[in-house]
Amino acid sequence: MTTIGIGLVGYKFMGKAHSNAYRQVNAFFPDTPKAHMIAIAGRNEDAVAEAAETFGWESWTTDYHDLLANPEIDVIDVSTPGHLHHTVVMEAFAAGKNVFCEKPLANTLAEAAEMVQAWKAAGTVGMINFNYRKVPAVILARQIIESGRIGEIRSFRGSYLQDWLRDPNATMGWRLQKEFAGSGALGDIGAHITDLAHMLVGPITSVTGMLRTAIPQRPLESDPTQMGDVTVDDWTGFLATFANGATGVFEASRLATGRRNHNAFEINGSKGSIAFNLERMNELEVYFDDDAPDVRGFRTILVTEGVHPYVNRWWPSGHIIGWEHTHVHQVHDLLVGVAEGVSPAPSFADGFRCQAVLDAVERSAASGRWETPVALPE
Amino acid sequence: MTTIGIGLVGYKFMGKAHSNAYRQVNAFFPDTPKAHMIAIAGRNEDAVAEAAETFGWESWTTDYHDLLANPEIDVIDVSTPGHLHHTVVMEAFAAGKNVFCEKPLANTLAEAAEMVQAWKAAGTVGMINFNYRKVPAVILARQIIESGRIGEIRSFRGSYLQDWLRDPNATMGWRLQKEFAGSGALGDIGAHITDLAHMLVGPITSVTGMLRTAIPQRPLESDPTQMGDVTVDDWTGFLATFANGATGVFEASRLATGRRNHNAFEINGSKGSIAFNLERMNELEVYFDDDAPDVRGFRTILVTEGVHPYVNRWWPSGHIIGWEHTHVHQVHDLLVGVAEGVSPAPSFADGFRCQAVLDAVERSAASGRWETPVALPE
Amino acid sequence: MTTIGIGLVGYKFMGKAHSNAYRQVNAFFPDTPKAHMIAIAGRNEDAVAEAAETFGWESWTTDYHDLLANPEIDVIDVSTPGHLHHTVVMEAFAAGKNVFCEKPLANTLAEAAEMVQAWKAAGTVGMINFNYRKVPAVILARQIIESGRIGEIRSFRGSYLQDWLRDPNATMGWRLQKEFAGSGALGDIGAHITDLAHMLVGPITSVTGMLRTAIPQRPLESDPTQMGDVTVDDWTGFLATFANGATGVFEASRLATGRRNHNAFEINGSKGSIAFNLERMNELEVYFDDDAPDVRGFRTILVTEGVHPYVNRWWPSGHIIGWEHTHVHQVHDLLVGVAEGVSPAPSFADGFRCQAVLDAVERSAASGRWETPVALPE
Amino acid sequence: MTTIGIGLVGYKFMGKAHSNAYRQVNAFFPDTPKAHMIAIAGRNEDAVAEAAETFGWESWTTDYHDLLANPEIDVIDVSTPGHLHHTVVMEAFAAGKNVFCEKPLANTLAEAAEMVQAWKAAGTVGMINFNYRKVPAVILARQIIESGRIGEIRSFRGSYLQDWLRDPNATMGWRLQKEFAGSGALGDIGAHITDLAHMLVGPITSVTGMLRTAIPQRPLESDPTQMGDVTVDDWTGFLATFANGATGVFEASRLATGRRNHNAFEINGSKGSIAFNLERMNELEVYFDDDAPDVRGFRTILVTEGVHPYVNRWWPSGHIIGWEHTHVHQVHDLLVGVAEGVSPAPSFADGFRCQAVLDAVERSAASGRWETPVALPE
Question: In chain A, what is the straight-line distance between the N-terminal and C-terminal CA atoms, in Å?
Fold first, then answer.
């Protein structure tokens, strides 16, 4: 069995989630290439040492270059804040590594373009962690669409609603500052629904949108008696057209009081419809217009059957999985891709396409007009 | 077009609902025999006069015998408290009238048996108002069962949960006194789920049950500073077997805090299942095991399509109807039945069968053993 | 008790719904001024005669001018297709009548402006039938907002999804032709969510939007072997800003396969949120952030309690009402308004404001830019 | 940090779930005593070797006595079929080990009594794996009850519905044979709801019940062309009384077509109610009657907040956990208990109490009368 050496940069929320995925994947997918958790990197020595111990890494370092220099490490996992993606990824590809990068790819589209070119030049695997592509219910949605069972797609509506910033007294972390995060609700969670729309409906061809910052100042983390300017959006909405003629309505908010992680979409086709909500991620709602006329209705499918994607590796029918399992699936695909030398979806190209839509939304918010996403660099 | 003269006894909750049904039925079912709202009877002169005016009756009386003596009146509608059903119904049949009686048929099984015999002797129509039989979703449930689409019925679970008596300070009306109401949650709402089980699954052959009165004393209506004994149950539960081999679990409560009118059942068959809840009475949940394996799930059918029972007479797709409409459907069937001289379901025989189950539950609650419902008198 | 004479123009879907409302209102609101159903007008003699008989009108005419000339008629109810609203309404005000007009007010904003001016000149009551304002749950939503219990409103998302035009073989009625209907999904159902947004959040100040006609040709009603051009949208989406700083995302579709009458909105405030769906119109979802931290969640309120708007006139707790009841409430308010000489909400001014938003969306769909709704004429 | 040596007997469904729990617990609960996965035992050499490799055990054996003899092993985890529990557990206590036993405790109450006595004699920890006690939403339910927020408990209804045996052609595994499984739906899943009722409402004092085997013969696993007799129930229903005066209605089925893992209960108290369904195990429905009258309704609490039990060790708000996490929580409590020398709930005493209720149901099914559970042995 192939063994693939992993080096992780970052040890906070995503670092914890990715570590769990590497630790778990082969217990449930024993035939998949083995993840070898070689080293974790982070700038705070105590914190990274503790993370290594807790999360199960063999070693740790405060300098991620050590990972790049380690020939046993096949994959560099970039789970840092967004402003560091570009630097680490460019160096990783230069070192001939495979790269697994958190979303969004970069803080600017120019950076993203460079990263795509570096990926192509390196010829290694480049995967981006849009983990919601790996929810079994989402894959089932795609299978249903591809099978033609809901006909031609006519409209997509997606909203990703959270509320963790509803409190004006919540302090200002890096996710609220443009230089670190690139954008706010748009890049953090709007990116996810945009990527899901790409996966399920296809390319977005134009957008018109709006960005809002309802709470423009917040207490500083360093000194909560002082206020600082929030420099990213906390809400965004945009309309879109798709290459296949479908229309899209998108919204992302971190102020939707009461909605914790409401990543929801509905897709209407000429013969049926599909609806999903991450808060009930083991379920998919599906309507088929060719059901008998007296018994037509949205079905609530509990996506926990052996016939469903990935599910037969987990538990019997009706035993639900959780959010962290999406990362295990993602890492499963990563390991297979690295072993085969093929970038699995969502690849760096998918990451760029998503970023290009976010960029067009930002331009539209400034221009007040419809804008076209930049094409993937050759 | 045939016109059918109606005389109503009772002007409170059920009197209001029945009056509405007579007033509405021909506006939506214009081809149905016409309901002629001739007279309403009640003991309180002011109240009955006001009811006649408000509800649209041509005349009123404080003596229901006036209705019996009126040759233009074809149907006597008995919407009084339960302890008066027997007397009025017996006189009505003796007068050769058709009878539409509120549930439960009577306060004792002996009374009910006499009423059935009087009905048979009269040869007129005898219908009992188990109005939930006339919910379109419930009829759809029956159609699905009869078509074999969920296979053989294996189990029924029904619970009718209300909470209007959760407050110990709620005063003691006639529904809390055995001499007027016969029983409590059992006869008032347990009767409904029992009747629905009969309609959907078939005859109940044995029961074991329990009655409870969690709040044994309440303030008197006449003098709330005085407490009186509650002499009926406020909760009942029972297990049942059906003639077709299915099993049943039943519960009725007036103390289920937060449940307003939760008349819910689920039926599991060998090939599918059905679930219903009156609080969402325009919906039916249906599961078919012969759906494709990857898209099996309970469908939420919005039972508002033209193909659904009664619906094409109301409003377009997706425009829901309310609780009162069940009475309109019931009255529709009554008018057709009277015109044709045939007792529509639920007939007095259905009323007796339900009463026999309630009686068996009461006997079981006393004996601690399984009891068999008394058979319909020849 | 005051009696108010009613003359209705139109006898199809809305004519049926309005007739029912006039027939029912005083049975449940006996203290409200009496609706006197004097006459119904329509062009087809047989049809209008049958409608008069079935719906309970004392007389009928094929010339609506008869209604205008009848001094006993206080209210002209305009339930015709949209292209006739302007003519009838202008004449009705000229005749000194009170007017109750179906939505949208007119097919163009210029017409609507004239109608508002005529209303002001007449000094009589002018009400528009945005009946969803009269859903008890919707009024409860407004009461909650007005009480401050969900804080400052930050965002509104509304979608009105139907699917009755999903079949490309459905023939082309008047609602699909611009000269009769003005617009498609936008004016028919987008108007409703726009009006609800106005009622609940306040004035919309700018919009950017898109119109689509996914099925551009349909069989002619007159000759289904021939195809005709659909000249209105079957889908619309738009973004909006509100005067109070909130943002809005709107969508209306007649092609949302599986959604029958899904008029749904969600409102996020700084302290709570509210969600509603017409298909479950007796329910309101409400979240309060000042609930205890361990038990915060959206409450499903069954809006059937005596404390809820209009409800105590209908049935006991938990006995739901239907779609038609919204019209009864609307007519109730109309009768009170006419008796008092005050135009109740939604007035002709509300109708104009809604129309101005629809007009701005149409302009934006053409310009690709943000557009501002025209102000109410002085 | 204390390290606790674990030896596991069994490697199938529960073996996999328990292994996962030991492997995961310290990554999320780093301050908890460490689980040291020393050895796994099973009779099939190839299978147990593969399980050791896949699940992360340091060693394996085909003779569980090796675990008993190993002084580094502190805890014997008994995840075998039910008929082996008694033997292994008795030997484990005799060897002075702590014991973690799958449910139900034993196949007969006599065996269970002996095991309780052995546990008391050993003075070590004895815990039973009723893992649904460790669902955060279930613990929240208990906290709400204990705080008095729903008042006095009046009724409990619990149903555990599965459908994996709905197909008559499903072959006959050990769970369908009385000598291996003890009972069917009753002991397998009825045990869970019984235990939850004990945890949430308190001791059950009497029961009357019914057992059914709707599919009495099934193909043999060894030779599917031959049919064998199913010797356990596939459905059970029973009524119960609780020591605190509450009433209970219970049902368990393996034939409830469409219900995958529907372990659901509702508890009605004098001031509120609680509802739960394992298929949406991250949610709890709660109703409080002291909410303001216009906004009373069941709240859907997403039990993923830091204030909720165990949750702050997992992921941020709104990121759900899965079924397997209940075992991690269970193992967490086990490790703490072993370190402190205290048997955590659910202890062997809880296991016996549950078993005593199941035994009373079986006796009642035979006698047709109410039966009283045997008391815990002194």
Answer: 36
